[in-house]
Design brief:
4-stranded antiparallel beta sheet, globular, 49% strand, mainly beta, 7-stranded mixed beta sheet, single chain
Length: 124
């Protein structure tokens, strides 16, 4: 059974840091593109960070240099380290999976499946 469970969101001030985690069941050894997308009220879904089975990472320009995605335990755990957070990073963040053919951050904006989401709020 495949399942994604998000955790780790919260509220921080601008410039602060948060770490999101995703427990991924049923994806051990898989070739899927995995990562996070976010969605703020009234805005389109945005792919934030992606990682493939080889550990190659891709980021949206809006978070490049501030966010770091990683995976461990044969893809059973994903993490998104977020630093220098800005108010525009405020959104619901979802751990997600997508087909492996093109593993870019934007790929996660049209995922095959996703977790329940976790809220990130950054105040100015």
């Amino acid at each position: 059974q495949v399942r994604l469970v998000d955790s780790g969101g919260g509220s921080v001030q601008s410039g602060g840091s948060l770490r999101l985690s995703c427990t991924a069941s049923g994806f051990a050894g898989s070739s899927y593109c995995m990562g996070w997308f976010r969605q703020a009220p009234g805005k389109e879904r945005e792919g934030v960070a992606a990682i493939d089975k080889f550990g190659t990472t891709r980021y949206a320009d809006s978070v490049k240099g501030r966010f770091t995605i990683s995976q461990e335990n044969d893809r059973s755990m994903l993490s998104l380290e977020m630093k220098t957070l800005k108010p525009e990073d405020t959104a619901m963040y979802y751990c997600a999976v997508a087909p492996p053919r093109s593993c870019e951050a934007r790929t996660l904006a049209t995922p095959m499946g996703w977790g329940q989401g976790t809220q990130v709020t950054v105040s100015s």
